Amino acid sequence: MTDAVTFRGVSRHFGTVKAVDEVDLAIRDGEFFAMLGPSGSGKTTCLRLIAGFEQPTAGRIEIFGERAEGVPPYLRNVNTVFQNYALFPHMNVLDNVAFGLRVKGVGRAERHRAAEESLELVELAGYGARRAGELSGGQRQRVALARALINKPRVVLLDEPLGALDLKLREQMQEELRKLQRALGLTFVFVTHDQDEALSMADRVAVFAGGKIQQIGSSEDIYRRPASRFVADFVGSSNVVPADLAGVGISDQWASLRPEDIILDANGREATVTGTFFHGRVTKLSLDIKGQSLTALIPAHQTTPEIGETTRVSWDPARAHLMEREA
Amino acid sequence: MSGFDTTQSAIFTPRSGPLSRMVDWVIRHPRMFVFLMVLPITLWLGIVYIGALIALLIQSFFSIDEFSGIVVREFTFKTYGELLRPYNLDIILRTISMATAVTIAAAVLAFPIAYFAARYAKGKWKALFYIGVMLPLWSSYLVKVYAWKLVLAKEGILTWLFAKLHLTWLLDGLLSLPVIGGNSLSVSYTGTFLVFLYIWLPYMIIPVQASLERVPGALLEAASDLGATPRQSFRMVLFPLALPGIIAGSIFTFSLTLGDYIVPQIVGNSRLFIGQAVYTQQGTAGNIPLAAAFTVVPIVIMGIYLWGARKMGAFDAL
């Protein structure tokens, strides 16, 4: 099966800044693919390279097997949901959604009917006459999605689409996006800096840093078996500790130890509590073991030790992951 | 935590001095603050501006005794009737046509310049743009107009340039055209048009640039992403969003051209524009009522224009 998007040695340099640097990746047809990374890591530039807003300075981009370098955005059957939605302020919702058909010369009645259908898909039927400015953030988000879907694109690109929503709405939209993607069987490429979002929604995740991909894999892979300190730290704020301390290797190697894998254990090793943070479901403990700081997440129903107290903790060395790369 | 004096009061003692105390009082009374802010401008606008305008309007309903030349202070529409005489009507139509042509040309010229400044110019290039656009406004209007008269004259640099480029036939062809032609550019409507265009262009560029600056780049990307060709993006997204700026600019270029009496006097043929008609009527002719009636014409035209622009939603984004 042809991959939806492939990058081969793709670079995008802005002067001396290497926004994207020799990236190779293959996004499979029909998958929900997340690009995760801190700001400035190159994930958004990668998305813009797929959309055609940026052209690569080097390398080869294929979309469903066809070369895409030099092809302008309006000749790509790929549509984008923008970070701030980019809804046209001088049009109502229906005309916004129908825009993609209008530029193709589809008649008013037909494109409005199609736009209605697209709005139904995102559960906004009947909102057509409103202006974008009259909608809430979540509704705008849905309009942007309906607008991106009306051209029946082969790939849907989403640039931090949930970033501006509050937590509750974000969780709801995450679920809906995932459901919609499954129902339509479309390839979704999703850019986010929120690791929870990436892990929970995506089939596969690419972790970006410094214009390069640090690791590509399933959510489970990325979380359980981070390839580098950066991935371990960025995804799930893992404890990166000397491997001998974690009990999985020798002292000049590093291991990642997930905070939730550290448990309070009367038979464990001594640790000084340097901070406690109540999070509701869990309590986060800052610990110090012989000069090494560690973070542990313990269920909130357990008795929390006080700051300054010495407690005992342990972990199953099998849960610790020895990392291949230092960086 | 050290260095914090916990014995200190959390509320500071009131400030002394009449000005400080007055400022503190005003800060606590925001409505009073607004009132004090708008009072001078309201008085200025109300008395000097609107008052003068009403006096003018009243004048236009008086008439002149044709034998004695004395203003008859009786309400009449006679003076407005005079506006409709063919000679005066020609002046009005000539001025409106010129203002329309100048406005359209200014919009067409300003758009690419403003677009470049809003989208691509950064840092010192943007500063250079502002200086380049504003600089002509800082020098004397009369000097510029006389300079243009020399440029456009038969012996001027433009004629010389056309000759050097072997394009004299083009210039002659242009000048031989009816209405817009003449003996030389400096005594033709084309000349008047060029000078108006030059003088008022900055007033179009600045608002168009301001409106384009407010169009997020993502909107154009979104249009392109959805399949709009550059032409469609312009027509369906960029132009409608820049329209408020174009309308704002056209208000300047249109009304400034409508009221000007110096440019057509220096560059152009001897046919009058509204501004010149007002000047002559209130000066040499001493016909204040007719001058007033002429002055009302641009006001009415601008009123209609603004009303139409508002209907089009041109001020929604201001």
Short structural summary:
Chain B: One of its GO terms (biological process) is transmembrane transport. The complex is a heterodimer of chains A (327) and B (318). With 327 residues, chain A is α+β, with helices and mostly antiparallel strands.
SSE topology sketch:
The complex is a heterodimer of chains A (327) and B (318).
Chain A: E1 5-14, E2 17-27, E3 32-36, H1 43-51, E4 58-63, E5 66-67, E6 78-81, H2 93-102, H3 108-121, H4 137-149, E7 155-159, H5 167-184, E8 187-192, H6 195-201, E9 204-209, E10 212-218, H7 219-224, H8 229-234, E11 239-242, H9 243-246, E12 254-257, E13 263-278, E14 282-289, E15 292-299, E16 310-314, E17 321-322
Parallel strand pairs in A: 3-8, 3-9, 6-7, 7-8
Antiparallel strand pairs in A: 1-2, 1-4, 4-5, 9-10, 11-12, 12-17, 13-14, 13-16, 14-15
Helix pairs in contact in A: 2-3, 2-4, 3-4
Chain B: H1 18-28, H2 30-60, E1 63-64, E2 71-72, H3 78-83, H4 86-119, H5 123-138, H6 141-152, H7 157-164, H8 168-175, H9 189-213, H10 217-225, H11 230-259, H12 263-266, H13 274-282, H14 288-311
Antiparallel strand pairs in B: 1-2
